[in-house]
Each structure stands twice: as structure tokens, then as C-alpha cells.
């Protein structure tokens, strides 16, 4: 096979894989009714995101994760689309429940002015909050959306909600319209009420800390 044919074959394979990935994300976003619940339309080439929690668990187009497994902000990666700035949003449209979403949406995370695909370079507008569906409200969708910014967002004049009380009744549509954001990637997971399971690790750490403090106090008193 000539070099030209090999290059053509490699390019064709790359395009096929890219289209397959985009199609899968679009299909899942349609299946989970991201459209029309928080978006009006989806681009044809929506890219998947690589989202991994410190537990080692990954977000995978609607898989179910426990609240205790997603307490801390994950690492988020994506194949570089092009240069410029990006914004990453995590939102829950099912507040207080999917069948009665009177407080749609709850904003769980918002980072803007991300340079290329380096999440740590961005500015965190809304701090990360893991899933925490109330008891009896069923499965909630936690949707990650990656946007290409038209320009940098000046936070001092952006008037973006950034306090704990401003998380509810937010709107992805308004965010996109107000800051000329173009959707380029996404993923989602589901979670439901877990009781006090998410507090077990916190309580163990607290008890361990108290015991260690007592041991050190006793040691130095001697």
C-alpha cells in the first residue's frame, strides 16, 4: 500500500471514530432529554468528555454514581478542539425531582476562561458541589457541558451568580445567550438519594483526627 493510501485510510478511520463518538453523545443526550429540558438543539459533532473522580470512577453517558463517590471535584479532560477559551458547566435540571422540576436548574459547578484544555487555568465562578438528591426524588441527571467562549469573560462585570443561594433556578440557555457560548462537548451521570452513606468517610476521618490529637497530647504531656 502506498504512503498516500495509508494516509487516506488513517484519515478515514479517524473521521469514522470521531463521528461515532459524536453520534453516541448526541444519542445519549437525546435519550436523557437534555434536549429540550435545558437545551434547544445539539450540534452534530458534540464531543465526549473524560471525567474521572478521585475514586477512580468515570462519568459515562448516564451511568449511575453514588453521592459518596462524587464528593470532590473530578478531573475533566477533552481532546483539544482548537485554541481559545472554554467554559465548563455542571448542572442538575431535576430539582427537586425530574417529574416536578420547579427549581430547575441547580448549578453545581462553573469554570470559565479555561485556556485550551487546561482546566486548572480557568476561573471558578461557582465552586464544585457533588450530587445530593433529596430523599424520595428519584434519579437526578448531573450534566457536564463544555462551551467554546467567543472571548474572555470579565468576571467583575459579568454579573454571574456565584453564591450558595444563587445555585437554584439558573438557566443553561441564559448562560449561553448572555456570554455567546457555543456547545462543543458534554457528558452526564445519574444519582439518587443515598442516606447518610456519604457521611461515613467524613465521620471516620473526624474520629481518627480526634484520636490522633489525644495521642499526641498525651505524648507531649509526658
Q: What do you see in this structure?
A:
It holds the Pfam family PBP. It comes from Clunio marinus. This is CLUMA_CG004377, isoform A. Residues 1-22 form the signal peptide. Keywords: Membrane, Signal, Transmembrane, Transmembrane helix. This protein has 222 residues and is of the alpha+beta class. The protein has one domain: Phosphatidylethanolamine-binding Protein (Alpha-Beta Complex), CATH 3.90.280. The protein is built from five helices and nine strands. The strands form two sheets. Strands 1, 3, 5, 6, 7, 8 and 9 form a seven-stranded mixed beta sheet that branches. A hairpin with a 7-residue loop joins strand 6 (106-115) and strand 7. The radius of gyration is 21 Å and the shape is globular. Residues 8-19 and 198-213 have low confidence and may be disordered.
